[in-house]
Amino acid sequence: MEILAFGVTADEKPLLEQAFAGQHEVRCLDVFLDEDTAPIAAGYEIVSSSVNADLNGRVLRVLAAGGTKLISQRSTGFNNIDLDEARRLGLAISRVSAYSPYSVAEFAWALAMAVNRRIVRASIRTRDFDFRLNGLMGRDFHGRTAGVLGTGKIGEAFTRIAHGFGMRLLGWDVVQNPACLELGMTYVDKDELLASSDLVSLHVPLLESTRRIVDAAALRRMRDDAILVNSSRGGLIDTDALVDELRAGRFTGVGLDVYEAEAGVFFLDKSLEAVEDDTLARLVTFPNVVVTSHQAYYTADAVGQIIATTVANVADHLAGRRSENTLVPPP
């Protein structure tokens, strides 16, 4: 059987081909699965999509009409998939329920360190042989307070690193994580966490209940000199409200690996095009902001685990099995 994989990076392609070798052929495309590209999948029973796929009802109907039976998404989040429509169409959907939490947690810390110590600005200066220290002063994280919104596997990994820095630990989640409690974390309500933390890092999934969980009111509760990091989903932050706060001179730094309107922008080369997103264009101009293109998960370890799970999901589908990765079972 030949599997069609959308949104495959150059680094990912040989890993996918090697993982499926001896079992199935895999055709790798670098384009993302959306309304424009869905017709390409006609005749493919199994399609694999990437993190930025737009699997709305219209896309799913095109896939189903073309004979697709399984969509195996190579990511954890599924807020981009119309699951109700998939069930109606009889389309099976699987995902990668877990992969290396350290990849995202370590990258979140890379963002925190970069904005705190002005790493990007310093690097740009030294390339111009400007070795002055003016404007590069950061702060010790040791002894300060880390607020972790979402203390699942990634939030726990982030917390362990914060503990290593010698930080006071505050957490917020619907369920308390015993491992975080053992590290000395105190669970508080969201408002107290935002008001008391020097560093706030987001590690919750994007659900209707968490959409724009950091809105204008939440941003106003944060300290003027706080650091905000988001390596989860862009929709957790009201970006327009964030820009307003940054324009007012607030926050020591903001590190964003995700953006709420990233679809159709992230993972693509837009360097020769006019910037149509005024909010994103404004956001990247602030000297205390670092924006990266949804790369926190992108380590050899994590991608290898994602691909291995995708191979297992395909095998489970063909054998009629369900697993913790099954979002919509076959009819």
Automatic annotation (TrEMBL):
This is Lactate dehydrogenase. Keywords: NAD, Oxidoreductase. Belongs to the D-isomer specific 2-hydroxyacid dehydrogenase family. Residues 8-326 form the D-isomer specific 2-hydroxyacid dehydrogenase catalytic domain. It comes from the Bacteria. PANTHER family: 2-HYDROXYACID DEHYDROGENASE HOMOLOG 1-RELATED. It comes from Streptomyces spororaveus. Residues 110-296 form the D-isomer specific 2-hydroxyacid dehydrogenase NAD-binding domain.
